[in-house]
Design brief:
single chain; 368 residues; alpha/beta; 434 Repressor (Amino-terminal Domain); Rossmann fold; 3 domains; six-stranded parallel beta sheet; six-stranded mixed beta sheet
């Protein structure tokens, strides 16, 4: 039985701990140690306790593999190319956080490029990542139209593309959760903030909302619908477009926003107009980003498990690279609905003060 590994002076006298150092200490061959630490196919035949001994010894001896030597030896880079629309926005940050967590635990690296929906950049960056030896791709909020040269997983990908696995939310269920909630609270005049046309979720989500609204008997009125434009990823975007919506002077009692960022911005626009949330207007967002719970008031929203979606994307592409998984065209993700303080019963009468910014009274309803 091998004694516990301790950082003895004799073991640390070498300038660098190598596979041979670990193998000599454990009485194993360098090939066995290499298989366990690289998790190569040969490692599958090793007993679990042997692999654990090797890993513990490597940690205790502070073994640091030479990445370039490993890549040349195995003809692998263990690197994934992540093609994102943006990093700074909460949506992309949460997805990439999930990607990073899984890849780090499985000894993979990733390189990230940002395309901002520029098709020329998308093509250029994909080629650049290929030249840097990536073994697979993960895209976020990116509308792919053609197959890439390596295993590819698209988070929020909707267009069927050969060889690409799309990770998609069930937008029909998401729309039903939100609209049923508002209808149950008595809201009939509902305003909508649609997503930017370049966002990969925008068309699918809007089509789902229209279909569910028809099934629930809710009317979608053009005068109560506005579409986001631009690449701003701060609440300022929702703030400015909500002000435009209010300027139309058509009354409504609830707003369903494309995402949480727009919803949080709309809260400020309503407050500025003298309208109370949710007493005068209820607001529902989409995504459940970390800031949603800390909005004032806390935001009711459709939750996408964004970190989990990033983890699933990373696991899927690694499994394809390692030959552990089979290609599937789509992985469906179920949404959840989180009820907070931004939604409440519809006021007894319509918002007649919307043109002047006056706050209509809510009669006959108990105080919150």
């Amino acid at each position: 039985m091998t004694p516990p590994v301790r950082k003895k002076p004799g073991l640390r006298s070498e300038n660098k701990v190598t596979l041979r150092t670990i193998a000599k200490h454990l009485g194993l061959t360098p090939g066995t140690v290499s298989a366990a630490l690289n998790n190569s196919p040969a490692a599958r035949s090793l007993p679990a306790h042997t692999k654990n001994r090797i890993i513990e010894a490597a940690q205790a001896l502070d073994y640091r593999p030479n990445f370039f030597a490993r890549s040349l030896r195995l003809k692998r880079t263990y690197t994934i190319g992540v093609i994102a629309e943006e990093i700074g926005d909460a949506y992309g940050a949460m997805v990439i956080s999930g990607i990073e967590e899984y890849l780090r635990k499985n000894n993979y690296f990733f390189l990230t490029v940002i395309h901002r929906h520029d098709p020329k950049l998308l093509q250029t960056y994909a080629q650049m990542l290929l030249t840097r030896g990536v073994e697979g791709f993960i895209t976020t909020d990116t509308s792919l139209t053609e197959k890439l040269a390596l295993p590819t997983v698209a988070v929020a990908g909707h267009q069927p593309v050969e060889g690409v696995t799309n990770i998609v939310l069930d937008h029909t269920r998401a729309a039903r959760l939100a609209l049923q909630h508002l209808r149950d609270l008595g809201h009939e005049d509902i305003a909508f903030i649609r997503g930017q046309t370049l966002s990969s979720d925008s068309a699918v989500r809007w089509n789902a909302i229209c279909e569910v609204a028809r099934q629930l008997g809710l009317r979608i009125r053009p005068e109560l619908t506005i579409q986001l434009e631009g690449i701003d990823s701060t609440p300022g975007l929702g703030y400015s477009f909500t002000k435009q919506l209010l300027a139309r002077k058509h009354p409504f009692t609830a707003l369903f926003a494309y995402n949480d960022i727009a919803a949080i911005g709309s809260i400020w626009a309503f407050h500025e107009a003298g309208l109370r949330v949710p007493e005068d207007i209820s607001i529902v967002g989409f995504d459940d980003i970390p800031g949603a719970a800390y909005a004032n008031p806390g935001l009711t929203t459709v939750r996408q498990p964004l970190v989990k979606m990033g983890q699933i994307a990373a696991q899927t592409v690694v499994d394809l690279i390692e030959g552990r998984g089979e290609y599937v065209p789509e992985i469906a993700i179920e949404p959840e609905f989180v009820i907070r303080q931004s939604t409440g019963p519809a006021p007894d009468r319509q918002l007649q003060g919307i043109a002047t910014g006056a706050s209509p009274l809510r009669e006959g309803l108990p105080a919150k």
